[in-house]
Amino acid sequence: MSSAAFNSDTCAVPDERLLAAWLEMTELPPVPRLEVEEPHSQGLRQAVRVVTDALLGRPTQEGRQVPSAGAIYPYDVLVLVDEGDRPEHSSAHPPGHALFWMDLLRRTCVRLGGPATPLARLLRPARLPDGGEAVAHVILLARPWLSMRKYGSRGYLYTQLDAGHAATNLLGTALQDGPAVLRLHGPRAAIRAAVEPCLPHREVHSVVTIGRPHTYGENSDWATFRMAGDDDPAGTGQLEGVCWSGLSEAVYDSSQPFAAPALLHTAAPIATGLRPPDPGGIPLGQWREVSRQRQSCKRFSGDAPEPDALLGMLTALDTPLPADLSESETGQGVRATLLLHDGPTAKACSDALRDSRIGVTVPDRFRDLDLLVRSCMGQANARVAAGFVLFHMPRGELFSGGPRDLRDAVFRASCGAHLLYLGAGRNSVAITTIGGYDPDLWREFAGLTAWDETLYLLALGVDQAGSIKHDRAQVAYAHGE
Fold it and tell me: Which residues pair with 454 in a beta bridge?
């Protein structure tokens, strides 16, 4: 807007610098223009089913299927499919690869035109463990800004942990239907560059490759749209770019070729050394049912779960999952420590876990409940928790192998935490995440050294009646998100 547009006889001439600054701070971007399209390809239909069941649940269900620090869910989901299986084609979209952004809030698929072809080339080597081809690739993009605007720099860690929960549930849900595999590693910088024009300031967390399911589910009630222009569908703002510029490329852009199918392994994310009487882990055929039972505890009753319930929960860590994690860890790797108050439950668990790789400690300082609450940044729920699980790893191992080992370890911790959530639901143990805590105190509680890195802390107990926390039952989001 220029001063020439004003009639100086009837209106004062504005200060153009002040006006430009004001508009920059207050104007909102236009709402993206979307046009309805149809029909779905078979691959998209299966991917929508997996994403819905893994992350959202049924439309009438309260909350989401996975937990998130602050109920923020700091990630985007993209789906790449080959539209050669579309029942019909239009001149606008001939057979070929297509990329869709999944609007999890509105349950819609938005076609993104530009990145589909380069992404298809990049993901061509990402085959299933048996060498089979995919019907869809589900690409999970971490969006650190959403957590960091609330939690500061530590929000970056919360973003990785939340994305780990999502990736684990996506993989488990897909495996219930047919072959699937998760890849944390690959040409992440190239994938990020391909999607950056549409979705800037994202980090590639993982790719879940989905094979042909045993049977296709019912048609989804999701609507499918295509972008009428080149708008950003997710409402990325200027401040998000400022936040992104402060992150280290050494962490978010580590890249390497996709692992060949022969180098993919099916193994538990945490080596427990448990020897349960029955096959351990979450049964893949029951993943959706178990996932629907998952819930976060808002307040514990103060009672202790039965020892068998705690031990049953821990066997969930033995769930074998196909991924590109190292087949065997050198050194100690990511370990889990169970911390309990003194009493019969602690004695029974200590005896049962004596020959396992899960440590059990009974900290003397747990008797100081005020200290326990302070160690959890004032979270009062810690006062009535029956126990805790801490995932940790020696810093010498964590930071000596480059970004790959760091990404592996953080995912193993978040994947292990998600499996504990599922195991807790199966064994009637109440559980919730403790995001903010004093790492020095928790190293002391767990009997660790100053050179051990604490990765994830969860609190355990028995639910107080009616105290279930529905993750994001009330949706809250900013403009355009």
Answer: 392
SS3 state of residue 111:
strand
Could you give the 3-state DSSP secondary structure of residue 463? Answer: strand
pLDDT digits (tens, 9 = 90+) for 278-331: 567 999 999 999 999 888 888 999 999 999 999 999 999 999 999 998 765 556
Measure the CA–CA gap between 14 and 227, rounded to whole angstroms.
Answer: 37
> CB under 8 Å to 358, separation ≥6 — which residues?
272, 273, 274, 314, 317, 335, 336, 337, 338
**pTM for the predicted model, two decimal places:** 0.90
Cα torsion for 226, 163, 325, 43, to the nearest 10°?
A: -30
Tokens 């699980």 correspond to what residue? 389
The mean-pLDDT minimum among 18-32, 122-136, 166-180, 373-387 falls in 18-32
DSSP secondary structure string for all residues of 162-216: HHHHHHHHHHHHHHHHS-EEEES-S-HHHHHHHHTTTS-S-EEEEEEEE---SS-
Q: Are 172 and 287 in contact (CB under 8 A)?
A: yes
Interval 266-281: pLDDT, tens: 999 998 888 755 567 9
Q: What gap in Å lies between CA 258 and CA 188, rounded to an integer?
A: 10
